[in-house]
Amino acid sequence: MEVEIGRGKKARRAYGFDDIAIVPSRRTRDPDDVDITWKLGDYRFELPLLASAMDGVVSPKTAGIIGKLGGLAVLNLEGIWCRYEDADEQLQRIAGLPKDLATREMQEIYQAPIVPELIAQRIREIKEQGVVAAASLTPQRVREHYELALDAGLDILVVQGTVVSAEHVSRDESRPPLNLKEFCREVPVPIVVGGCASYHTGLHLMRTGAAGVLVGVGPGAACTTRGVLGIGVPQATAIADVAAARSQHMLETGEYCQVIADGGMRNGGDVAKAFACGADAAMIGSPLARAYEAPGHGYHWGMATFHPTLPRGARVQTVQNGSIQDILIGPARENDGTFNLMGGLRTSMATCGYRDIAEFNRAELMVAPALQTEGKHLQSAQQVGMGARGAAAEAHPTNGNGANAEKALQEA
């Protein structure tokens, strides 16, 4: 429903995860009977989970760990891992930068050229662990590097930018735009494209022949796009709109395009809401940046943080307080939903009686901002449970040695 924001200007009301609630149905189900598997192209995954293509989250090593747990990790082929042989040296340097110098120093670090040989090497390192290899390139560079990645054994290609459209207009003939429709049909592996945040853009991206579409513009913990550009759509509305485009695309073509919620999910409740809004899978970054194994050494930053002229991201500190396994499939030893994210999804589906993701996409939702605060005064005052909202991992970081978040809160 549109509201008038001034004479001659109307706008739609949009909702984020904190604004909505999932409504239980008439049925409940045993969590062991819930199926959360999903497919991308010909690949089937036990967990509907992608790790974001961010240098502080995905390395060849963590790609192997996540793959063996049943998820899919996406390596950034334009990041540190494909610019430096000794990537960890640069990652430690980034982690040690003072806050006021972090952005400009990272711009310098990322000035180093992409090394083609490292693209092939990193993909081989992932494949050697016996998991599906996925990697991302921007629309500006995908033509330059994708063939080398395919030759090295890349299984899934992600064409990713802050906003990706099916139609890019430019008068600069020296830089012809990427024709996604032609590209998706000529590349012999599944392609995921994004981000997008609206019905029409999502539908146009699906019509390119992409296997999946990333939904999310600016919701990530490290992203500042919404502040720098004023662009973005709250995630609940964005996912629901693109899921509607998926239905229209299915009617037009008979082909099912996967909708992947990208960013904005802090805990199991947010993940569950993304699926209830219509997502087939979730791409997460900051929750995994907290892992002991994460390559960012307790820090997290996005793909546009180091843009040479207009950075649109921040380096944020986290508390490394659990393993990747703890964060994804548990067991959880905290009560705020920041661990065992996939168990949270499974239990949410079971509590509402849904047996698979397609059914859960049709869950009833309510606009319910009181969900986060109703009856939670003691938790909020004591910063425990829902009162913490993951704040221990973000607002009160420790020195990155895995110290307990509770200690950080006690010292605050």
Could you describe the 3D structure shown?
There is one protein chain. The N and C termini lie far apart (43 Å). The protein has one domain (15-365): Aldolase class I (TIM Barrel), CATH 3.20.20. The protein has an 8-stranded parallel barrel, surrounded by 5 helices. A two-stranded antiparallel sheet has the order 1-2. The protein contains 16 helices and 16 strands. Helix 1 runs parallel beside helix 4 and helix 7 (199-206) crosses helix 9. 33% of the residues lie in helices and 15% in strands.
Could you give a short description of this structure?
By secondary structure, this protein is of the alpha/beta class. It has helices at residues 60-69, 87-95, 102-109, 116-127, 142-151, 180-186, 199-206, 225-228, 235-253, 268-277, 286-289, 324-329, 341-351, 357-360, 377-382, 405-411; strands at residues 2-6, 9-12, 20-22, 38-40, 43-45, 49-51, 72-76, 134-137, 156-160, 191-196, 212-215, 258-262, 281-284, 299-300, 316-317, 365-367. The chain has 16 helices and 16 strands.
